[in-house]
Design a protein that fits this description.
The chain has 181 residues and is an alpha+beta fold. 33% of the residues lie in helices and 32% in strands. The protein has an 8-stranded mixed beta sheet, with helices on both faces. The two termini are 23 Å apart.
């Protein structure tokens, strides 16, 4: 799968964002590993900032539950579709889509902070949604307001939580929703 998207950067230059499925070769595996690790470390840092983590140590190291995911992303995501966003030949984003029956779950949507604001999150989410046909669910921390706005712009609505973690917002996009843009 390849989905080219053109977006303007803040400096007015046109940059092509290409979203494609991971090939799980050495380069893609390293890219997924690095992007997911950065995502998880950022999340742990934010949890600390928002008083969800026990100590600042979480900023430096991942909790054990995430170690396998980073050490061997190919095995961890074997039952998923893993998409990489590329600008030129550089991996700058990742999204994991797990489909189970008629429902899909979007996990680990992450855009490199250095290239945010250029439509990267939208390109990743749109490519992930293009893989789905039924109901789609995801969860996001309540302090990630820009991500929540993006999800809502694509037809996601807040629902009762399926997770007991405080401040985690659960969202669903019903089947056959026409996203607002």
């Amino acid at each position: 799968m390849t989905s080219p998207h053109l977006h303007s950067s803040s400096d007015g230059l046109r940059q092509s964002i290409r979203v494609r499925e991971s090939r799980w070769d050495e380069a893609d595996t390293a890219a997924v590993r690095a992007l997911v690790r950065t995502y998880l470390l950022q999340t742990e840092s934010e949890k600390h900032e928002h008083r969800r983590a026990a100590s600042p140590a979480s900023i430096m190291a991942l909790p054990p539950r995430y170690e396998r995911e980073v050490a061997d992303p190919r095995a961890s995501y074997a039952d998923c579709t893993t998409l990489l966003a590329m600008i030129e030949r550089r991996p700058v984003g990742v999204v994991i889509v797990r489909t189970d029956g008629g429902e899909a779950e979007i996990k680990r949507l992450w855009a490199d902070p250095d290239v945010r604001g250029r439509g990267l999150g939208s390109a990743l989410l749109d490519a992930a949604l293009a893989l789905t046909h039924g109901r789609v669910r995801l969860s996001v921390w309540d302090w990630r307001a820009p991500a929540i706005r993006l999800y809502e712009s694509r037809g996601f609505v807040r629902v009762d939580s399926w997770d007991d973690r405080e401040r985690l917002v659960c969202m669903v996009r019903p089947a056959h929703t026409v996203p607002l843009r």
